[in-house]
């Protein structure tokens, strides 16, 4: 039972353009949503989060949007930079504090 | 300020053997979680330790066990290794309390032959 789905295994965008990474979830108990970025041979790094009481959170070039009724969230990166090339994981959490990770989306930003 | 450190970085074991992986949390963090990441998948939650006790457990068999020490460091033990246990094992630390982001180490790559 996959509670978190990132349906796009990979995404390729041009430098300077917008990258949009999507995530769908099924568990209505999730109320805190995190995005992590992972480079090869490194552990995941926390990027940005959003609480279920909000529908948008912004941090510099990164914005996360949450649509609770659709159980969907997205991460927007604008402008995209080659250094953003990595695997991005969506990781919702309920009040247990346990993170449930999606399968990840590999983003490639071409110079 | 040292982040989360894990040892060893790589390990090769034979089926049926036992393995112990170690983790030192980020300074100031009191909660340690362990995740298993198979190739091409997202990390899967194994268990979480706080105040030297297992607080939560994921869907992993009893062959997977852990421990947290008074200095908040932690160990993950896996007995009777199977080929399917080959994966990247990630340790993450956080402050106790809901909403505290996890900080991950670089992981231990375990290969079972």
Class by helix and strand content of chain B? Answer: mainly beta
Q: What is the arithmetic mean of pLDDT of chain B?
A: 94
Average pLDDT level of chain A = 94
Strand arrangement in the largest pleated sheet of chain A: 1-3-8-7-6
Largest sheet of chain B: 7 strands, mixed
Round the Cα radius of gyration of chain B to an integer and report it. 13 Å
Order of helices and strands of chain A: EEEEEEEEEE
Task: Give the termini distance of chain B in whole angstroms.
Answer: 37 Å
What are the segments of chain A in which pLDDT stays under 50 over at least 5 consecutive residues? none
Q: How does the overall form of chain B come out from the CA principal axes?
A: globular
Q: How many E strands of chain B?
A: 11
Tally the helices of chain A. 0
Radius of gyration of chain A: 13 Å
Oligomeric state of shown chains: heterodimer
Write the layout of secondary structure elements.
The complex is a heterodimer of chains A (111) and B (113).
Chain A: E1 4-5, E2 10-14, E3 19-25, E4 32-38, E5 45-51, E6 56-59, E7 62-67, E8 72-77, E9 86-93, E10 105-110
Parallel strand pairs in A: 2-10
Antiparallel strand pairs in A: 1-3, 3-8, 4-5, 4-9, 6-7, 7-8, 9-10
Chain B: E1 5-7, E2 10-13, E3 19-24, E4 31-37, E5 44-50, E6 53-57, E7 64-68, E8 74-78, E9 87-94, E10 103-104, E11 108-112
Parallel strand pairs in B: 2-11
Antiparallel strand pairs in B: 1-3, 3-8, 4-5, 4-9, 5-6, 7-8, 9-10, 9-11
């Amino acid at each position: 039972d996959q509670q978190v789905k990132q349906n796009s295994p990979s995404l390729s965008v041009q430098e300077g353009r917008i990258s949009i990474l999507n995530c769908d979830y099924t568990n209505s108990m999730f109320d805190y949503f995190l995005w992590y970025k992972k480079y090869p041979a490194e552990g995941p790094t926390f990027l940005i989060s959003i609480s279920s009481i909000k529908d948008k959170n912004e941090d510099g070039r990164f914005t996360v949007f949450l649509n609770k009724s659709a159980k969907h969230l997205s991460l927007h990166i604008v402008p995209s930079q080659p250094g953003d090339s990595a695997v991005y994981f969506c990781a919702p959490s309920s009040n247990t504090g346990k993170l449930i990770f999606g399968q990840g989306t590999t983003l490639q930003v071409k110079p | 300020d040292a982040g989360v450190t894990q040892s060893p970085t790589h390990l090769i074991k034979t089926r049926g053997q036992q393995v112990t992986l170690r983790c030192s949390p980020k300074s100031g963090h009191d909660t340690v979680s362990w995740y298993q990441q198979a190739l091409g998948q997202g990390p899967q939650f194994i268990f979480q330790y706080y105040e030297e006790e297992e607080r939560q457990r994921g869907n992993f068999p009893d062959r997977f066990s852990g421990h947290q020490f008074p200095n908040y460091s932690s160990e993950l033990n896996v007995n009777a290794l199977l080929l399917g246990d080959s994966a990247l094992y990630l340790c993450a630390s956080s402050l106790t309390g809901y909403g505290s982001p996890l900080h991950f180490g670089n992981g231990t790559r375990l290969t079972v032959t």
